[in-house]
């Protein structure tokens, strides 16, 4: 837990593990800097996969929209994460919408440059396959979370995911989210209405599971939240 996107998905770490310390600069040294203001659409589902973006700062929300018009958030991506790799690798359209949840900076690398570099470095190809498998597992986990019948379990699982990816622990073991996630954000992440999220967080705060400091959620009792995520009731 380091306040960024989950460390397993940090492209800089993946490149260094696969090819050595000079690999990030070798791949992205000539990439074009890009900036997106908060709320800006980075790309939409179906857009051509012309390249990838290495996120350097900020947070990107990745989501899809159901035929009924309901948004489902698949992931929140932060510094070090590679955005748009699936479409860039297979040449198809974007598989989700990507919106800047905060001001975002990054570096855009054209698809042709990425493919040429991967072709010249088989070790990186293997590392990217592992990363794509990780993303597929995460997407599967989010699907399971959003289809759980118990609202408590859905919200608890979503919160654990966010604390694992965006949390920093203090010396007492409390974990604070380094990003401010609104109750609407949390609801979209686990398919709950904002009112239900608000009610449940208020209850868990009263029970000492969570706290709210400077508009950021703090996890005080991971074991109890984990139990809720696994289907135990708050009275257990």
Account of the protein in words:
The protein has 236 residues and is α+β, with helices and mostly antiparallel strands. Helix 5 runs antiparallel to helix 6, helix 6 (151-166) packs across helix 7 and helix 7 (183-190) packs across helix 8. The chain has a 4-stranded antiparallel beta sheet with strand order 1-8-3-6. A 4-stranded antiparallel beta sheet has the order 2-7-4-5. It has a 4-stranded antiparallel beta sheet with strand order 9-10-12-11. The protein folds into 2 domains: 7-146, Jelly Rolls, CATH 2.60.120.10; 150-229, Winged helix-like DNA-binding domain superfamily/Winged helix DNA-binding domain (Arc Repressor Mutant, subunit A). The protein has 9 helices and 12 strands. A hairpin with a 5-residue loop joins strand 9 (167-169) and strand 10 (175-177). The radius of gyration is 18 Å and the shape is globular. It starts with 10 loop residues before the first helix and ends in a 7-residue tail after the last helix.
């Amino acid at each position: 837990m380091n306040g960024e996107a989950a460390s397993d998905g940090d492209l800089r770490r993946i490149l260094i593990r696969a090819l050595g310390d000079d690999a990030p600069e070798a791949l992205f040294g000539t990439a074009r800097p890009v900036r997106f203001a908060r709320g800006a659409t980075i790309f939409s589902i179906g857009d051509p996969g012309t390249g990838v973006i290495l996120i350097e700062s900020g947070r990107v929300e990745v989501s899809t929209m159901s035929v009924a018009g309901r948004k489902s958030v698949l992931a929140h991506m932060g510094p070090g994460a590679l955005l748009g790799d699936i479409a860039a690798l297979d040449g198809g359209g974007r598989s989700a919408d990507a919106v800047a949840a905060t001001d975002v900076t990054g570096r855009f690398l054209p698809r042709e440059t990425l493919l040429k570099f991967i072709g010249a470095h088989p070790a990186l190809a293997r590392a990217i396959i592992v990363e794509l498998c990780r993303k597929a597992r995460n997407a599967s986990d989010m699907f399971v979370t959003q289809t759980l019948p118990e609202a408590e379990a859905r919200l608890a699982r979503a919160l654990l995911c966010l604390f694992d990816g965006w949390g920093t622990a203090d010396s007492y073991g409390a974990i604070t989210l380094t990003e401010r996630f609104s109750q609407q954000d949390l609801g979209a992440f686990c398919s709950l209405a904002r009112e239900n999220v608000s009610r449940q967080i208020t209850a868990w705060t009263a029970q000492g599971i969570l706290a709210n400091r400077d508009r950021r959620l703090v996890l005080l009792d991971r074991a109890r939240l984990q139990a809720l995520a696994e289907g135990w009731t708050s009275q257990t």
